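Hello,

Following up on my earlier ticket. Below are the two sequence lines again, exactly as submitted.
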Amino acid sequence: QKEVEQDPGPLSVPEGAIVSLNCTYSNSAFQYFMWYRQYSRKGPELLMYTYSSGNKEDGRFTAQVDKSSKYISLFIRDSQPSDSATYLCAGSSASKIIFGSGTRLSIRP
Amino acid sequence: EAGVTQSPTHLIKTRGQQATLRCSPISGHTSVYWYQQALGLGLQFLLWYDEGEERNRGNFPPRFSGRQFPNYSSELNVNALELEDSALYLCASSEFFGTSSYNEQFFGPGTRLTVL
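Thanks for your patience. The regenerated structure is below:
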């Protein structure tokens, strides 16, 4: 079993829709949870990170972690074509980051 | 401020050859991480160096090795290349605040390795 599982998609939604991206994980030692965005032919860039369970909001993006169910979510409000990218969830412990395989998201104008 | 840089951008090798990939971290960062991103597999952790020492290693064979230089730049070497080594190799750097702290990793653009 992979330590972080993520549906690869692709996911296609119309502009302005709310997007929900989800991951599950199995490693109870994870303390930090991250979402990265990766555009084609670029390295991943950090969107948000959270410590333990809870919600964190940054503009149109909200990250949620539920440690009891080992579930990680990212919500994107008012999605834009520029949000089209691959989104990677990740868990971290002792400076080692384990990534999900990424979900390819496409926002249709 | 300059970000993480990697060279070369693309590298084409044949089976059995050796590949050397290079990474320069962000100024002030002492930790360098290497990841392999193969199609459909996400990022797989390869190696972590901090202050010139190997701190952690992912589940890869010994033919994947590397080092970190006194200026904190790093090199990844892949010996006896196999077809399945074809992937994007990403380097990331961070400051290091301890293993219990969050050490944000900043990624470079990657080196695309193709093994023929």
